[in-house]
Predict the structure.
Amino acid sequence: MNHLPQPEFLPVSKEELEDIGIDRPDIILVSGDAYLDHPASATALLGRTLWDAGYTVGVIPQPDVKNIKSLMVFGSPRLFFSISGGSMDSMVAHYTPARKKRSEDAFSEGGHPSRPDRATLVYTDLVHRIYQDAPIVIGGVEASLRRFAHYDYWSDRIRQSILADAPADILIFGMGEQQIITLAECADAGRNLKDIHSIAGICWKTSPKNWADQNTEINSGVIEIPSFSEVNDDPSLFVKSTNLIADNQNPFNNCFLLQRHPKTLIIQNPPALPLSTENLDRIYDLPYKRRAHPRYREPIPALESIRFSITSHRGCYGNCSFCALALHQGKIIQSRSTESVLREVQRIALMPEFRGTISDIGGPSANMYGDMCERWKTKGTCTDRECISCRIRSSGFSEYLSLLDDAQAVQGVKHVFIGSGLRYDLIPKGGETMSHLCAHVSGQLKIAPEHISPGVTSRMNKPSQDIFDSFREQFEGVQKGRNPKQYLIPYLMSGHPGCTIKDMIFLAEYLRDNRLYTEQVQDFTPTPMTISTCMYATGIDPRTHEHVHVPKNEEKRVQRALLSWREPANHSLVMEGLKQAGRDDLIGSGTTCLISRSGHNQNCTGKERTRAKKKGKVIGTFARHHMNDH
Ligand code: SF4
């Protein structure tokens, strides 16, 4: 056990390790991200939490896979390697929804992509090749959401569980602090990671023979889901597997999931229990520098957007179909204490770089802070209804607004803004509440309706158009007489399963009629383990077992163009979509036309387009143009 004080930065070199009197770290963290010593970075969070628990840590950020020496910086760890692909799935980080290679990576020095595709697998293979006897734990978003057989959009096929593919002993799913400390304690006590099968929040593997031989309590609590071969061959079994996985993620149900693979069996233990406020406070009260490690010569783009942002809570019960956050952070809201958040604000206010603006205090959904339900303490969430529409749940919204006010009152702080997405369907009605909310909006308020067509919002499990309209009216009501005005930045998505070209035209007409502008749109990307990805891969909605239309390739491009029909570059695709839908009435010079026959696009003068472009840059996806006209 080490009782050394927390280091200035976690060591990334042998010299730094020796400078603090250590010759061999207990645990080596290998990550696909550059090392940002910030609580929004998993490397810093897990590294400092381990150090706080008495374990020394060495960090290998973005090793050069062409030079295996970059993985031999510290030699072999005393306990184990912990490997992650980084803050994002490396395939999402590297490719656009159209599967084109991206030229930038925000989590790399200078934005230069520096992690391999399938980073977790590549790093684990290399480490295992160098240190065959070293125990390996994998974790992070990439591993967490590929823990079972899953549809991989980038290879357009079903892939095995990443733990079946990787020479790793254990996979941690979820944020991982509790699991990695417990694993360190077990390894420290001399136990072999291969034999550790009882910790919550991990997946492990075994051979069919060992499984048959063992007869423990696990065997009795196990639910076997369709095997890799079955989900690969039969879409209806992929649907069944998706439902069994989604319905059995309650940390209070002692439920183990088993999936057979050609060479091994993957077992998922029950998820880790939600962290208590005390534990969360302890983790976020650690001395993060909120800077990149001094080894970097160029800036790391991601740091700018997170440097002065604060995580106030974890978890989300929104249940959007295209989001797998609940399978990583869980549905139960885990909130920090206001005192702990205010301590963090005070620490930031003392930083020489700080200019007075806290860019965000929030979480996956900003306004779920402080939400609570008694069931969450002992039983977890209900399976027969949704927390989002449940009156038993108590809202922490007023506490959240008070927290923002108190943070803004801290000496040295001028502004505290909401930078995370807001669930507008959870915001209590009334001008006063909206005004209070807008006091913490920096000119732009991010919300995610994603669509308004009923056939699409139901597949997305998003609120219907009328809820969006009522929120927008409230927001615009508060803007009257306000100077400067604020804008909504709704995120809109094209190409989601269940969405047709007609639905996109319906949305385009809605934008036209409300003189709303879009600048960047989200083209649906099937990421591992979501309900929407199951729809994309099988053409079946797993919740209703109905067949759904799945736009792909050319149609996806047409849908995406329809959302930005004013963009001259989209004219031919928009024309194609309107013709396909028999909507020639929208082609021409009439005021309701979306495009002209000649290639210019309607409903927007040149001056308007330039101003919108300028505003767009400021306003991003969506702007209430002419707001000052109402
Ligand atoms: S009672 Fe309501 S808020 Fe509580 S877990 Fe059940 S659905 Fe969610």
